[in-house]
Amino acid sequence: MTVSFEEHVSYTDPTIKPILRELRQRILALGPDIRENVTKQQRVAYSVNRIFVEVKVQKKRVLVRFFGRGLPDPKNRVTNIPQTHGWTHNKEIAIANSDSLEYAMPFIKASYHSS
After folding, report:
1. Cα 46 from Cα 85, distance rounded (Å)
2. How far apart are CA 52 and CA 59, in angstroms?
3. Domain residue spans of the chain
4. 20 — phi, psi (to 5°)?
């Protein structure tokens, strides 16, 4: 069974819907080579040669997992993903409003450029 991006959007609270759509638009605008894979587990993966960003859709926020590239995090919003979790990505940031989306974009861009 395939799941659409809009089905994930419909799962979120009304305040998150525009944030999730904007995040998608901004990730896809990073380059023409980006592929999007929507999964039924409330996840959307973006890849070039490998998955550089995974978006976990939640009701009240969006979690973005990415490859940390040493960018400064002056607001301490980025959390480490322990290696024991066995995930490919080592960093995560929560997005719940346009301010946190703006803050997350440099980390997403750096992860894209490393893929």
Report:
1. 20
2. 23
3. 5-113
4. -65, -40
CA–chain centroid gap for 89, Å, is: 11
Which secondary structure element, helix H or strand E, spans residue 66, and what is its range?
strand 62-66
Residues 6+ apart with CB under 8 A from 23: 55, 62, 64, 95, 101, 104
For residue range 69-96, list pLDDT tens digits in order. Answer: 889 999 999 999 987 766 678 999 999 9
Tell which residue, 90, 109, 106, has the closest CA to residue 46.
109
Q: Can you tell me the distance from the alpha carbon of 48 to that of 75, in angstroms, rounded to the nearest whole number?
A: 29
46 has pLDDT over 80: yes
Residues 6+ apart with CB under 8 A from 111: 52, 53, 66, 67, 69, 89
Q: How far apart are CA 97 and CA 39, in angstroms?
A: 23
In CATH, the number for domain 5-113 is: 3.90.1150
User: What would the two tokens of residue 101 be?
Assistant: 């989306």
Q: Which amino acid would we find at residue 50?
A: R
